[in-house]
From TrEMBL:
Species for this entry: Candidatus Brocadia fulgida
Primary location: cytoplasm
NCBIfam families: RsmE family RNA methyltransferase
Designated name of the protein: Ribosomal RNA small subunit methyltransferase E
Keywords: Cytoplasm, Methyltransferase, rRNA processing, S-adenosyl-L-methionine, Transferase
Length: 245
């Protein structure tokens, strides 16, 4: 059985390859693999590779690829979640869970009332979050990896409404429609984005700008949700609503 999964940052061109850096450490010191141990590799582009360990050195591992195959475990709908970054470890939780669910893209945004400002450390955060997305794909057996985009100002994000079949902004405006209602209006949507605001909510001019750009206000429940809860909830609802069958 090829149980343990490891990530390749490239598509292998030969049957014998070396694993090094973090993946080699994982193979050697976490899983304690030995020559002959069977593993599964995936490249984040939809392919997985059944392999076994052939040679172990101090800091790298050679494996032989027995079989490569395209395995599609992705949702038929392409969902992007844009979110105002929550405090503390909640951002990592959001990224981990949305990645496990199968969200295609996550975009951290900076709003007027955002409580976390990572503009000076955005590159470092993005790298760390990308690693979390890879780990989530390992765990849930996705062969693709959620794309973590660079931090984007809210005003820049809303200009992209035309790129989506169903652009949504989660809010509590009196005229906001329920998700059930919008799904009925747009049953064939294939590319969806939903913006999740900060804990203090969107500023009035932000909602107005989003609507003018083409975003539709949506309410996803009767409660006021935390950023990470709202992101996971809307992701789950959209995946269910647009799943096959």
């Amino acid at each position: 059985m090829h149980q343990d999964r490891f990530y390749l940052s490239y598509t292998p061109e030969t049957q014998e390859i070396w694993l090094d850096n973090g993946e080699a450490h994982h193979v050697l010191h976490v899983k304690r693999a030995k020559p002959g141990t069977k593993i599964t590799l995936f490249d984040g582009r939809g392919f997985e590779y059944l392999a076994h360990v052939t040679e172990i050195l101090r800091d790298k591992v050679k494996v032989f690829i027995e079989q490569s195959r395209a395995v599609d475990r992705e949702s038929p709908v392409d969902i992007t979640i844009a979110f105002s970054i929550p405090k503390g470890k909640h951002a990592a939780f959001l990224i981990q869970k949305c990645s496990e669910l199968g969200i295609k893209t996550l975009i951290p945004i900076f709003c007027r009332r955002s409580v976390v400002d990572i503009r000076d450390t955005a590159g470092e955060k993005s790298e760390r979050w990308s690693k979390l997305a890879i780990e989530a794909s390992k765990q849930c057996k996705r062969n693709c990896v959620t794309q973590i985009e660079n931090l984007m100002p809210f005003a820049d994000l809303v200009k992209n409404a035309c790129h989506y079949d169903l652009p949504l902004i989660a809010c509590t405006e009196p005229h906001a429609k329920t998700l059930k209602h919008l799904v009925r209006e747009y049953p064939a949507a294939k590319k969806i984005i939903c913006i999740i605001g900060p804990e203090g909510g969107f500023a009035e001019n932000e909602i107005r700008a989003a609507e003018e750009a083409g975003f539709m206000p949506v309410v996803i429940g009767n409660s006021t949700l935390r950023v990470e809860t709202a992101a996971i909830a809307i992701s789950s609802m959209l995946l269910y609503a647009y799943s096959d069958g």
